[in-house]
Amino acid sequence: MKKIIQSTPGPQGGKSRLGAWFSMVGKDLRVNKSIYALAIPGIIYYIVFHYFPMYGVTIAFKEYSQKFGIMGSPWVGLVNFRDFFGGIFAWRVIRNTLLINFYELLYVFPLPILLAILLNELRNQTYKRVVQTITYLPHFISSVVICGMIVDFVSPNGFITQFVNMLTGNNYVNLLLQEEFFRTIYVSSDIWQGIGWSSIIYLAAITGIDMELYEAASIDGAKKMRQLWHITLPGIAPTIVTMFILQVGKMMTLGADKIILLYNPVIYETADVISSHVYRKGLIDNNPSYSAAVGLFNSVINCVLVFSANHVSRKVSGSSLY
Amino acid sequence: MNNKIKRSLPEKLFNVFNILLLAGLSLVTLYPVLHVVFASFSDPVEYMKHTGIMTGPVGFSLEAYKRVLEKPEIYTGYFNTIYYVVVGTVINMALTVSFGYVLSRKNLYFNKFIMIMVLFSMYFGGGLIPTYLVVRSLGIMDTRWAVILPTAISTFNLIIMRTAFQGVPISLEEAAKVDGMKPLGILVKIMIPLTSPTIAVLVLYYAVHHWNTWFQAAIYLRDAKLYPLQLYLREILILNDQEDMLIASQTAEQMALSSIIKYATIIIATVPILVLYPFLQKYFTKGIMVGAVKG
Question: Distance, in angstroms, between A86 CA and closest chain B CA?
Answer without folding.
Answer: 21
